[in-house]
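Render this sequence as a predicted structure.
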Amino acid sequence: ILYAMENKQPVIISTATLALQRQLVARDLPRIADALATVLKRKPTFAVAKGRHHYICKQKLNSTPTLPKDDDDDQAALFASPTTKLGREAKRVRTWAHTTDTGDREDLEPAPDLKVWRALSVLGTECIGASKCPFGGECFTESARAAAETADVVITNHALLVIHALEGVPLLPDHCAVIVDEGHELAEIGRAHV
């Protein structure tokens, strides 16, 4: 945190698991930020950088959802009917999506059905981009990335770090240092994503 503040750029902390990311963001960093606030004369900030598929897509939310191509046509009707289990789940996720500040799947309890979530989120390769999207100014992913730009510490995962570093896709803000936690997992995750 001190190094980030001295260099006026965030430090990236990369982890192998979402569980460790959650621990850092929900427990460890808030305690550290509170403890350092009086010493530093301001409370240190932190943010999370995740892939687009972790956030609800407002473009998909405001259009007719489609199931993944491997599902049959009969299942598409489930989204139109709140009387089916999948239909009720789609309604629950949609209702939550209109009230959430983050759009982050981890903030929805209980965790959403993956078929419903896939129908209402996008992969990075599917996104048309904030400048072309009618909901680009309200995009949850873009908001999270903007928060990461101004944070002292950015928590991410090894996959996003590898894609950022090796594929030349700017998924993380400019930064002054990277801390790789659970480093023994980095090589395997890197090979899987390159």
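Summary. The chain has a mean pLDDT of 89. Residues 18-40 form the longest helix (23 residues).
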